[in-house]
Batch of 2 targets.
Target 1
Amino acid sequence: MEGSAGRDLECQKTMDGKENNGNVSEKAIPSCCLKARASAPELDAKCHSTVVSGWFSEFSFFVLAKLAKRFTSTTPCGPGLVFLGIHLQEKHISLEVKEILYKGKSEYQEVLVFESTSYGKVLVLDGIVQLTEKDELAYQEMITHLPLCSIPSPKTVLVVGGGDGGVLREISRHSSVEHIDICEIDQMVIDVSKKFFPELAVGFEDPRVRLHVGDAVDFLRSTPEGKYDAIIVDSSDPVGPAQELVEKPFFETIARALRPGGVLCNMAESMWLHTHLIEDMISICRETFKGSVHYAWASVPTYPSGVIGELKYYNSEVHSAAFALPTFLKREVSLLQDQGR
């Protein structure tokens, strides 16, 4: 891999190239792909601004601004999977691309679906991996069953985001649930998921589900007080429009929509990369909610850094273990708890 890493880096440097017709593309395609396309048009199936020499590489928004910096290491981690060590000492995944299945741009974001060699189909939003067929179950099960198994017999549930349908699929396993609202801002994500990820989007077929396409903040503002037993926020990374989903006004709106004794489960990023964000969220939630606030984690290889017997990842032991934190994070959380007393 080391030999190819340098060539891929050169491709990254040419990402400001032009299309063959002389017009600058909206998301410029690397020159290596342009050359391949010219000599073999059928290779267009592997061309995209994030796909270089047949590999998709995810870079966070603050790394994209520093692409000119060189990689410090390239580590093969199995067939079709590589982790890149960036000079910022962060991990960003690369997946080998067999074929690009869909690429489009909605009002809110760029949507990409491709078939990888080892992780099945992959959903990417604005260059960030949202899920892969191989490991989506870990995320979907944990973000759903941790909260729903933490309270007795939840009946009303709200999902914020989650347009792929995976969280809905897992909620449907809970027979006590009578009503499920989902508020997803981007119709394209829903449509693409139904077409390319039917095993996740099956969640939309549950008759208890009511879909609301629009802004979650507006939706929650019009929600009756104390309506939900559980709210699950399955949002994208907290940048751009999603930034407000990790800020205090949003949590205050959620607290109003939850019944006394209800539970919120919120996507909270990686303890390896975003400790500062986790600390901020815990502090805000301790100020906002009456009750306990905890950080839990799960292993999802392609992310940076209920009848339980039917599940593939979640079980009662995993539930308990998810709250066992490494010493460095446990220390930070303990400090926050001490400050709150």
Target 2
Amino acid sequence: MEASAALSLQSCSWIGSEKVGRKTSGFARLSNRCLEERKVAMVRFGDPLRSGASISTGHAERKIFCCHKKPSGSENFHSSFDEALVLKRKSEEVLPHLSGRCLYLVGMMGSGKSTVGKILAEVLCYSFFDSDKLVEQAVGVSSVAQIFKEYSEAFFRDNESEVLKDLSSMRRLVVATGGGAVIRPINWKYMKQGITIWLDVPLEALARRIAAVGTASRPLLHQEPGDPYTKAFAKLTALSEQRGKAYANADARVSLEYIADKKGHGDVHALTPTDIAFEALTQIESYVIENAAASNNRSILG
């Protein structure tokens, strides 16, 4: 039996360097055209998901937030506002080249795929989906860790592939994929229907980030012995060796070390999600332009 799932839009949780969940003052609404383009996407999940659970969440109004803490912090406000405007202008340059193609963010756990993905969806007037969340909702289990525990990693991977297959038939989506989505060649077949972007984050930075929030939600880390940072770094190193070549298959690479060096930062933690999103748009633009040029040359020669 098939389960038809109406997936509502998921709102952007970050813009600039502040969380939207905090009190904010000042925001710029997206245009009506942009809001109208964000319609609820219908996804049909087939038998492999082994679940009749329906997915239904409320609609979310989209906004670009320009956050600041207090009126006295006007410099922070203007900085965030300027970042948002620059990012929006870049998105307007890139958008015509996309022709509605979906964007798939790949990378290690904790690399910021969901955070950056929501920002990209916001400025491009795309819809955002997290493939892990879609699997959780379709299976009817609250977390990936719980799916691993109750079923198996293979069960999760099967459902992950089905979700990516369904999403690949759509347009104008930004999809944050799970860290292990790249290990199955079939998933690349689905993701290559759009454009794939690798968020390349140094392992030390990833380990620190994961250790700070805990490993309970990371099924590949939670059962490992040792302190959070040590076990996170050891596991990430092993996973990087297994998946490094797979991540390199992405159409565009966003290196946080490169961005930090370009901006004169000594640490990638100094980067804001907006910095990373801007570089992602830049790399996507380079890819689509180079790809179009190569296609034209082949046509002329052929």
